[in-house]
Amino acid sequence: MEAKINAQTFINKLFLSITFLLSASLVFAQTKTVTGTVKDAKTKTPIAYATVAVVGAPAAAGTSTSTNANGEFKLVFPTSYVKIRASYVGYDNKDAFVTNDAIQTKEILMDAQDNMLEEVVVKAKKKKYSNKDNPAVALIRKVIENKDKNRLSGQQYAEFDQYEKMSLGLSNLSEKFVNKKIFKNYQFLFETDDSAKTANKYVLPAFIEEKMSKVYYRKDPSKTKQYILGDQRAQFDPKFIDNDGLAAYFNKLYEQVDIYDNNISLVTNQFLSPIANSAPTFYKFFITDTIKTSQPWLVELSFVPRNKADMLFKGQLYVTLDGNYAVQGANMTVADDINLNFVRDLQVQLKFEKDNKSRFYLKTSTLGIDFSLTEKGMGIRGSRTVNYNNYKVGVQQPDSIYDGPSTVIAYNVENKKATKSLFETQRPLALAQNELNIYHNIDTLQKIPSFRTFMDIAALLLSGYKQAGPVEIGPVNTFYSFNPVEGFRLRVGGRTTESLSKRFYAESYAAYGFKDQKWKYFFSGTYAFNNKSVYSFPMHYIRASYKKDTKIPGQKLEFIQEDNFLLSFKRGDNDRYIYETNYGLEYKKEFLNHLAIGAGFNINKQTPAGSLTYQMLGENGQNKLFNELNTTELSVNFRYAPHEEFYQGKIYRTPIFNQYPIFTFNYTAGIKGLAKGEYNYHSFNVGAFKRFYLSQFGFADVTAEGNYIAGKEIPFPFLTIHRANQTYAYQLNSYNLMNFLEFVSDHNASINVQYYMNGFLLNKIPLIKKLKLREVFSFKGVYGGLRKENDPDDPNYGSKVFAWQRNAEDIQSSYTFGSEPYMEASIGLSNIFKILRVDYVKRLNYLDHVDAPAWGIRARVRFDF
């Protein structure tokens, strides 16, 4: 009987089990697909890497996913479940009900957890905020105390795969703008802006770049080595745009964010990190939540600037409560009142995951910035996402892995198909369709004649050159100028382009002065050894040139020609000129580590013009006038600028400064008897430049220089004529209250300090801070002298060298240094109308010199964020 009962029981259980399995199979066989996006409820900005899960489904069922970089997700799950939930650090969880339709789309809007922070701020009005006995400050100090062991540099060895994506486009375009007749052939470019706060707004994607790398880090000796496995971007016609420079500039604006650095560089400025050593001095911290649904538990630590106009963040940090006090996530933005130009919106999202040693490493960094001249007008919106995978620590690689430059191109740049295949098969984050379209759209756009016409006009306005087939005419700002010697001066010139030849470049101009009735000429031919533009990095060329033109002794300009129309306006006596004829041969080579070497050979003839005189004062008034000076020079030079970045223009490079110094060395030898050379001398010049970042106190650009000229009885045109400025524009590397040809020396040392405080003081003054002005200070000093064998005042050699210059009243107007250096200082306001710098410049000594100005107002146009 017992056996019969047990058998019956077994059959019943078996029947029930089969029935349950069949029922479950039937239920799970009926599934539905839900796709959609997760966005910020207030800004409509997509939330990348948020978790979307089916409510009630077992974790092992695979019914959860994460949104991609564009906030998009896809879930496939049984019809028996009717609710999904989105969650992300810094936001309240948001549920959404779904129907039993087989395919459906959902938009989930999440509310940021900033309401708690606002409540804390309101309470702070009743009780003064203090760091003392503040648990939030105690917690952030723990984070600061432990950050060295939690960051990458806390590991002896680390390696990971890195994927970077940067995209930009015009934003906030109105329907009226898009539908203009001029854009009739460009409608394929525009897209509806889903993140816009108002309807009928469009975006115009314009740039995308992707990069895949393998990165190795070693702590001792410190080295980070990046092997770039693939790099692709939407390319514009290099005739109009320097694509490499454009990418470098965008990368500087959208730098990688390391929360563990004391200072975070963004849009060419430095922001103090909320976990910097000095963060409690500049930030207010509040504990606004404890998250127990995560392992380990997290504390939401909210922070705001003490001064809303300073270069600081506001947002939330998520700190682990496992004794390591690591950052598990961060959401950051900037205050509306911050002293930052042209930035309409800025968002930083950081997400960390555990490594194989249970330490948190940065998994994903997303930076979004919207630039605009006005709050509601069209702008430029861009985002940069960096994703890290296969993170490993403690794996020691051979020394050969770390040797060499920090960045190495580890793929065949000519094999476009292989690069494209790499991204199609191994890209860790899928591109949205609109991002994929950018590559195709840019290629299509450049085939439209009207667009090429637009780029031609834009190139003329921005670079000053007009395309004319295989040549370009310009620069247009030199076509007309005037000066006391030449009077009205007309000039026309141009140069060849890559359309004519990639290896050979020719450049020329002709100018005519209506007062002196003389023609001036310049011709040069350059051969590039590397089959690239002569100006593109790395340069490697040889150039021959002939020049017959005027020159102001002591005027040395950078990034601008001497006959620029705006420099025609000068103060004081400025009619001392030289007619110069020069035959030159120049060789230059740059290396990938940004070391540059050069050599030159020059034959030069000088003739004084205007009130300039070359004369020796003989005994008994027997003065000897010289109408011509000849010299033959050989020169070598070196320049080392580690990690240098720049935007390459038509002729000049616009530097993108970083914290690394720049060193220069120049040697020039005058050779008597060679090609009519009349003098022997040796000139040595060394210089160094460095930008010092001072966190909340701004930054300082410091230049130091030294010069020594060996030789005797050398005329002053071949000595150091110190850089002077008699225009009304503030020149960074010249002495703005020094007159032309005022100081001459054969040995000297100088210092130039430009200190930009970025509004740190003015931001503390009520009402004034609303103007968003910024303080700027400068100091320039130079000291040197003349050895007796080159000094016109020496009783033994005075009659063997050229006499000092004298003005129309026969008063001496040129000198060497006395017992003290020449010094001038300035205090100024920058960021006036966001583009103008105005300085009050004070000359500190040598005020007894003829026509020496005691002070002056100088202005400079400076575009800066």
Automatic annotation (TrEMBL):
<protein>
    <submittedName>
        <fullName>Carboxypeptidase-like regulatory domain-containing protein</fullName>
    </submittedName>
</protein>
<dbReference type="InterPro" id="IPR008969">
    <property type="entry name" value="CarboxyPept-like_regulatory"/>
</dbReference>
<dbReference type="Pfam" id="PF18939">
    <property type="entry name" value="DUF5686"/>
</dbReference>
<dbReference type="Pfam" id="PF13715">
    <property type="entry name" value="CarbopepD_reg_2"/>
</dbReference>
<feature type="signal peptide">
    <location>
        <begin position="1"/>
        <end position="29"/>
    </location>
</feature>
<keyword id="KW-0732">Signal</keyword>
<dbReference type="GO" id="GO:0004180">
    <property type="term" value="F:carboxypeptidase activity"/>
</dbReference>
<keyword id="KW-0378">Hydrolase</keyword>
<keyword id="KW-0121">Carboxypeptidase</keyword>
<dbReference type="InterPro" id="IPR043741">
    <property type="entry name" value="DUF5686"/>
</dbReference>
<keyword id="KW-0645">Protease</keyword>
